[in-house]
Amino acid sequence: MHPNLIEENIPLAHLHTFHIPVTARYYSAIASQEVLIELLRDKTLPSLPYIVIGNGSNLLFVDDFPGWVQHITIGGIEKIFEDHQHIHLRVGAGVEWHQLVMWCVERDYAGIENLSLIPGTVGAAPVQNIGAYGVSFSEVLEELEAVEIHTGKVRKFTKQDCRFGYRDSIFKNDLRNQYIITNVTLRLHKKPKLQITYGAIQETLAKMEVQTLSIKAISDAIIHIRQQKLPDTDKLGNAGSFFKNPVINQQAAAKLQEAYPSLPANVLTPLHDTAFKVSAAWLIEQCGWKGYRRGDVGVYADHALVLVNYGQATGQELLTLSTDIQASVLQRFQIALIPEVVILPLPQTTLKSPDYDTRTPTL
Ligand SMILES: Cc1cc2nc3c(=O)[nH]c(=O)nc-3n(C[C@H](O)[C@H](O)[C@H](O)COP(=O)(O)OP(=O)(O)OC[C@H]3O[C@@H](n4cnc5c(N)ncnc54)[C@H](O)[C@@H]3O)c2cc1C
Q1: Active-site entry in 167, 187, 219, 279
Q2: 303-346 pLDDT, tens digit each
Q3: What CATH number is given to the structural domain containing 284?
Q4: Number of neighbours of residue 210 by Cβ within 10 angstroms
Q5: How far is CA 240 from CA 67, 229, 246, 279, 361, in A?
Q6: Is the distance from the beta carbon of residue 132 to the nearest atom of ligand 1 less than 6 Å?
Q7: What are the Cα distances from residue 92, in Å, to 107, 122, 124?
């Protein structure tokens, strides 16, 4: 084994935003593509279950992790192309997403300002196609590079290859746990197309008395809104939205509207003719969970989609709360809530589930 690269029995509480005090049997902080390839091709490593992590802001550990945690810390922001309209940036997977947004806002490179203050790393952004305030990561991706875990081979993915959807990509489906993203290339705009129609952006810009609209003003407004709405993960453990907003068909949407004639406009968003996105926060609030607390776990009082660790919660307690919420929403609305957060590790009996993998990561 590589004693300098693979550490044993490492506490993970500070490496994920729920701050559950679990440990990793093995842990590596991986700062370059070369080191990653060397580790993946090392035939002397034992066969271990593994998980790739960035900042752990979308993970819930319900127990110690029995295998190898591969923490991607690859840095670097490099300008690789520029013309009068666009700029292409190649960014290391371990760069903090918000740090990248700030870097771009400072230089007036537009496209990701609406994604300000989303925690996490650049490498995780394509996995669930992060999105907020009317913008998704997929809109700015030019291509990305990833290393195949079982061969150590590098592969490039175009936007089409990634098969992006709402909080979804090929890396959560067909290629789940098969590739480690090492860098992404973003295509940003010099002539911004500002997106301010979503949520409370306009209202906040007005309150902030913004005279001239700019990407800096939009970023500031979104940071302000998010700081009001979401708990600071350093003070209150959480992973942002615990569930995805469910997508329902026309028939189910009509039923919901009939049962709730005064449904707020933002609860049901048409995606196309036959599919509607429902606000999971509204469903959870209707079931009386907003502000609920049980021991050290609860539902954040200002945002029903955010489950929180008040200090000493266990992952199992958070998981139980999440399944109780799912059951009550299902019973009342016949709508299934699906976690957005990745739950780890899965029970031993389902070790071969795609959520993580028992196959050896060596050749
Ligand atoms: C307060 C708060 C607010 C949030 N708001 C939003 C929001 O507005 N919109 C939104 O979309 N999300 C939001 N999130 C969720 C989260 O920030 C994103 O999912 C983020 O992309 C996770 O990044 P991470 O580095 O922490 O990934 P992790 O949580 O470490 O990992 C998440 C998943 O990505 C995989 N992964 C991580 N790095 C790599 C890599 N290099 N290669 C391959 N797979 C990898 C992991 O295996 C795991 O499956 C929020 C979270 C919090 C705590």
Answers
A1: 167
A2: 999 999 999 999 999 999 999 999 999 999 999 999 999 999 85
A3: 3.90.78.10
A4: 16
A5: 26, 10, 16, 15, 30
A6: yes
A7: 19, 7, 11
Model pTM score: 0.92
Same domain, 210 and 259: no
Per the DSSP assignment, residues forming a β-bridge with 136 are 131
Task: Identify the three-state secondary structure at position 359.
Answer: coil
Q: Looking at the 3D structure of the chain, how many domains does it have?
A: 3
Mean pLDDT of 294-302: 97
Q: Does one domain contain both 207 and 282?
A: no
| Amino acid identity at 254 | A
132 and 224 both lie in a single domain = yes
Residues in the chain: 363
CATH number for the domain including 120?
A: 3.30.465.10
Whether residues 136 and 181 fall in one domain: yes
Residue 351 domain-assigned (yes or no): no
Question: 107 and 96: one domain?
Answer: yes
Question: 66 and 90 in one domain?
Answer: no
* 226 part of the active site: no
List the one residue out of 127, 105, 138 whose CA is nearest residue 223: 105
Q: Which amino acid belongs to residue 73?
A: T
Residue 260 and residue 123 share a domain: no
Cβ(121) to ligand 1 under 6 A? Answer: yes
Q: The domain containing residue 85 runs over which residues? A: 77-229
Name the band, by pLDDT with cuts 50, 70 and 90, for residue 348.
very low
Same domain, 322 and 219: no
Cβ atoms of 220 and 231 closer than 8 Å: no
Mean pLDDT within 220-224: 97
Got the DSSP string for 34-57?
HHHHHHHT-TTSPP--EEEESS-T
- The rounded distance, in Å, linking the Cα atoms of 272 and 266 is 16
- Mutating to test ligand 1, I would choose from 39, 57, 116, 169 the residue with most ligand atoms within 8 A of its C-beta, which is 57
Residue 359 lies in a domain: no
139 is catalytic: no
